[in-house]
């Protein structure tokens, strides 16, 4: 399967714990995006990378959230000191910089904070 | 005001109906426009880009009015398989795609 892969698919954690999600993009894609989606809402932009450079972060993104893409391939999204409001589906997408409108999404990582 | 606003759903239509979705965007610097489709419990997928002159892909027609900052999607001859959430998406140069809340379409037999 050469699509976008995300792990874990589901994560249940207690409030205050740290969680990390991983995303493996389509191999030739140089852009990688993180979005968050809750029920009844569209995907909300969090951050994106071009190669290893983090080019944009949402102003809404709390300091508890950090993302990396150390070698310009896979990416991790870490949430520290989770809160119940962090419960959501975390979607990763990738694209070619030349075709920024066509995002290929992974199946998402669902986070439940108890 | 949200950057991308869509008609509230859901739209419930019979097979064969024509249905139109509307979307407005607030940032006049927006340059690129798209419609994405998201099936229940699935990831979003690109349906079509929206060009200034309007464009058609089979039963789907997208229109853009830059002066009014308005985007539309028309679906003709609705099929059961068209049931999904349709997401209006805009993009400014050098930024990530911004998604609307989505409009849910349910086509019944």
3D structure, described in words:
- The complex is a heterodimer of chains A (114) and B (109).
- By secondary structure, chain A is an all-beta fold.
- Chain A has strands at 5-7, 10-13, 19-24, 31-37, 44-50, 53-57, 65-68, 75-79, 88-95, 104-105, 109-113.
- Chain A contains no helices and 11 strands.
- Chain A is globular and about 40 Å long.
- The mean pLDDT of chain A is 95.
- Chain B has no helices and 11 strands.
- In chain B, strands 2, 4, 5, 9, 10 and 11 form a 6-stranded mixed β-sheet that branches. Chain B has a 5-stranded antiparallel β-sheet with strand order 1-3-8-7-6, with no helix packed on it.
- In chain B, a hairpin with a 4-residue loop joins strand 7 and strand 8 (70-75).
- The chains are: A mainly beta (114), B mainly beta (109).
- The A-B interface holds A 33, 35, 40-45, 48, 55-56, 91, 100-103, 105-108 and B 4, 32, 34, 42-46, 49, 87, 89, 91, 94-102.
Short description:
Chain A has 114 residues and is an all-beta fold. Chain A is 0% helix and 49% strand. Chain A has strands spanning 5-7, 10-13, 19-24, 31-37, 44-50, 53-57, 65-68, 75-79, 88-95, 104-105, 109-113.
Per-chain topology:
The complex is a heterodimer of chains A (114) and B (109).
Chain A lengths: L4 E3 L2 E4 L5 E6 L6 E7 L6 E7 L2 E5 L7 E4 L6 E5 L8 E8 L8 E2 L3 E5 L1
Parallel strand pairs in A: 2-11
Antiparallel strand pairs in A: 1-3, 3-8, 4-5, 4-9, 5-6, 7-8, 9-10, 9-11
Chain B lengths: L3 E3 L4 E4 L4 E7 L6 E7 L6 E6 L4 E3 L2 E6 L4 E6 L8 E8 L6 E2 L3 E6 L1
Parallel strand pairs in B: 2-11
Antiparallel strand pairs in B: 1-3, 3-8, 4-5, 4-9, 6-7, 7-8, 9-10, 9-11
């Amino acid at each position: 399967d050469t699509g976008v892969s995300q792990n874990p698919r589901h994560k249940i954690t207690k409030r205050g714990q740290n969680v990390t999600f991983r995303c493996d993009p389509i191999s030739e894609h140089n852009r990688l995006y993180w979005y968050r989606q809750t029920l009844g809402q569209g995907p909300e932009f969090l951050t994106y990378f071009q190669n290893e450079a983090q080019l944009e972060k949402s102003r809404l993104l709390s300091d508890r959230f950090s993302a990396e893409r150390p070698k310009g391939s896979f990416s991790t999204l870490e949430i520290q000191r989770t809160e119940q409001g962090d419960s959501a589906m975390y979607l990763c997408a990738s694209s070619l910089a030349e075709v920024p409108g066509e995002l290929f999404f992974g199946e998402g990582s669902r986070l439940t904070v108890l | 005001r949200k950057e991308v606003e869509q008609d509230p759903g859901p739209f419930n239509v019979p097979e064969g109906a024509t249905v139109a979705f509307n979307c407005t965007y607030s940032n006049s610097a927006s340059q690129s426009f798209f419609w994405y489709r998201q099936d229940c419990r699935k990831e979003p997928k690109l349906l079509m880009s929206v060009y200034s002159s309007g464009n058609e892909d089979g039963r789907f027609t997208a229109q853009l009015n830059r002066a009014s900052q308005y985007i539309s999607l028309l679906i003709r001859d609705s099929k059961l398989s068209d049931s999904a959430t349709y997401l209006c998406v805009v993009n400014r140069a050098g930024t990530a795609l911004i998604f609307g809340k989505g409009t849910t379409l349910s086509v019944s037999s």
